[in-house]
C-alpha cells in the first residue's frame, strides 16, 4: 500500500520518511517491518534500548532504518526525531489495564501528556499526517487505561482545529484485542497450556473484539492513506465469547479452566462505537469511519472534503462485543489464520 504524501518531493517511497512511536511494541514493530518492506525510510522511536537494538540487528540490511532512543514524555526529543518526517504513527502507550489501575499517574503521563507532545512536535515539524492507535477500551471507559485512550482520541481530533497555517492533519484508529500482541489473552492461554496448568478465565460470560496483527497494521495504513483529519477508523472485526476462544486454543485437548473474576477496570463486554457515535459512523465496506462531532468547526477546506463520506450508509446502533458472536468453528478458523500470519512473518 502506498501512502500518498501532500508534499511534491515525496512521491516516491524512498523519499518518504515515516516515524513510528512505540516502535518496539507489538503493533509498532510489525508496522516498522511492513513500511521498510514497502520501501519507506522508517524512524523507529522507542524508550527501549534493548528493543531498538534487536530491531537494528534484525533489519540492519535495509539501510533505511533510523533508530531514535527517546520517550514520548520528552517533547524536545520528539521534535528532533520528527525533522523531515512526512507521516507519524503514534503507537507508544501504557496499554495494560491492570497495571494502569495501580499506576494511574504514569498512564496519564505517557498516554495523555505523551500524546499531546506528539501533536505539538508534529505541528512544529510540519508533518503531513499523524495516526493515533486507540482501543475499544476508550469507548465508555471503565478503566484508567481506557480513560487515557479516550482523552488521546479527543486530543487528536481537536488538534485539527489548532493547526492554523500548518498542513498537519490528525486521525485515529480503534483496535479490539490484537491477537498475538504482548500480553494478549491468546498468548497467556498458550503459555498456560504449555505449563500444563488450568486456563485462567475472568468470566465465562466475557466477550471481546479480536483482530489479527496484519489487520491492525492494514487499518493503520488505510487510515494514513485516506484520512481527511478528525476521523476515527474502525475495522468490522469479529467478536467472541472468551470461553469459545479458550476451547479453540485447546484444540483436541480437554478444556481445563478456573474462573478468577473481573480484574480492576475490566468490562464484561467491550464496545467499538457508542450510541451517540453510531448515527455519524459511515460504513465503507469492512471499515467504519466515525465522523467528528466537531465537523462544523473544522476549517472550510477540510470540511468540504468530508463530502466523500456523505453518501455512505450509517450505523443504526452501537457496536458491542456481545452482539453477533462468532461460532466455535469461526473462532477456530480465526486462530488458524492468525497462526498462518505468524509463520509467514517469521519466514519473512
Structure description:
It is built from 11 helices and 16 strands. The protein has helices spanning 26-37, 49-59, 75-81, 97-102, 104-124, 144-159, 185-194, 213-226, 242-250, 300-305, 328-347, and strands at 17-21, 41-46, 65-69, 87-90, 129-135, 169-175, 177-178, 199-201, 207-211, 232-235, 238-241, 257-259, 271-273, 281-284, 287-290, 319-320. The strands form 4 sheets. It has a 9-stranded mixed β-sheet, with helices on both faces. Strand 5 (129-135), helix 6 and strand 6 (169-175) form a beta-alpha-beta unit.
Features:
348 residues, alpha/beta, Rossmann fold, 9-stranded mixed β-sheet, 3-stranded mixed β-sheet, 16 strands, disordered C terminus
Categorize the overall geometry.
Answer: globular
Instruction: Report the CATH C-level class of the domain at 8-176 and 213-236 and 273-319.
Output: Alpha Beta
Let me know the CATH homologous superfamily of the domain at 8-176 and 213-236 and 273-319.
Answer: NAD(P)-binding Rossmann-like Domain
Rg, rounded, reads 20 Å
| Ends apart, CA distance between termini | 17 Å
Largest sheet: 9 strands, mixed
Mean pLDDT: 91
Category by helix and strand content:
alpha/beta
Q: Kindly state the number of beta strands.
A: 16
CATH topology of the domain at 8-176 and 213-236 and 273-319: Rossmann fold
Order of helices and strands: EHEHEHEHHEHEEHEEHEEHEEEEHEH
* Strand order in the largest sheet: 3-2-1-4-5-6-10-15-14
* CATH architecture level-2 label of the domain at 8-176 and 213-236 and 273-319: 3-Layer(aba) Sandwich
Amino acid at each position: 500500500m502506498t501512502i500518498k504524501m501532500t508534499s511534491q518531493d515525496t512521491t516516491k517511497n524512498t523519499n518518504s520518511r515515516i516515524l513510528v512511536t512505540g516502535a518496539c511494541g507489538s503493533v509498532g514493530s510489525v508496522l516498522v517491518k511492513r513500511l521498510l518492506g514497502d520501501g519507506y525510510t522508517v524512524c523507529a522511536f522507542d524508550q527501549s534500548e534493548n528493543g531498538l537494538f534487536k530491531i537494528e540487528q534484525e533489519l540492519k540490511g535495509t539501510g533505511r532504518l533510523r533508530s531514535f532512543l527517546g520517550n514520548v514524555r520528552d517533547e524536545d526529543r520528539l521534535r528532533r526525531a520528527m525533522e523531515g518526517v512526512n507521516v507519524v504513527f503514534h503507537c507508544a502507550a501504557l496499554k495494560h489495564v491492570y497495571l494502569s489501575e495501580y499506576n494511574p499517574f504514569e498512564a496519564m503521563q505517557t498516554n495523555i501528556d505523551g500524546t499531546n507532545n506528539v501533536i505539538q512536535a508534529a505541528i512544529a515539524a510540519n508533518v503531513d499526517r499523524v495516526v493515533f492507535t486507540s482501543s475499544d477500551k476508550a469507548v465508555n471507559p471503565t478503566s484508567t487505561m481506557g480513560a487515557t485512550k479516550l482523552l488521546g482520541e479527543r486530543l487528536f481530533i481537536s488538534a485539527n482545529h489548532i493547526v492554523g497555517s500548518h498542513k498537519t492533519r490528525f486521525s485515529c484508529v480503534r483496535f479490539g484485542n490484537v491477537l498475538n500482541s504482548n500480553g494478549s489473552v491468546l498468548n497467556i492461554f498458550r503459555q498456560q497450556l504449555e505449563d500444563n496448568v488450568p486456563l485462567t478465565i475472568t468470566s465465562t460470560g466475557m466477550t471481546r473484539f479480536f483482530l489479527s496483527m496484519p489487520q491492525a497494521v492494514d487499518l493503520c495504513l488505510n487510515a494514513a492513506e485516506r484520512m481527511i483529519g478528525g476521523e476515527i477508523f474502525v475495522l468490522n472485526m469479529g467478536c467472541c465469547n472468551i470461553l469459545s476462544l479458550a476451547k479453540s486454543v485447546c484444540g483436541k485437548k480437554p478444556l481445563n479452566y478456573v474462573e478468577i473474576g473481573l480484574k480492576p477496570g475490566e468490562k464484561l463486554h467491550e464496545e467499538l462505537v457508542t450510541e451517540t457515535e453510531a448515527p455519524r459512523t459511515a460504513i465503507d465496506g469492512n471499515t467504519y469511519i466515525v465522523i467528528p462531532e466537531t465537523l462544523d468547526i473544522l476549517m472550510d477546506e477540510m470540511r468540504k472534503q468530508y463530502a466523500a463520506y456523505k453518501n455512505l450508509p450509517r450505523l443504526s446502533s452501537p457496536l458491542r462485543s456481545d452482539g453477533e458472536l462468532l461460532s466455535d468453528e469461526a473462532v477456530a478458523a480465526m486462530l488458524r489464520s492468525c497462526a498462518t500470519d505468524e509463520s509467514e512473518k517469521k519466514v519473512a
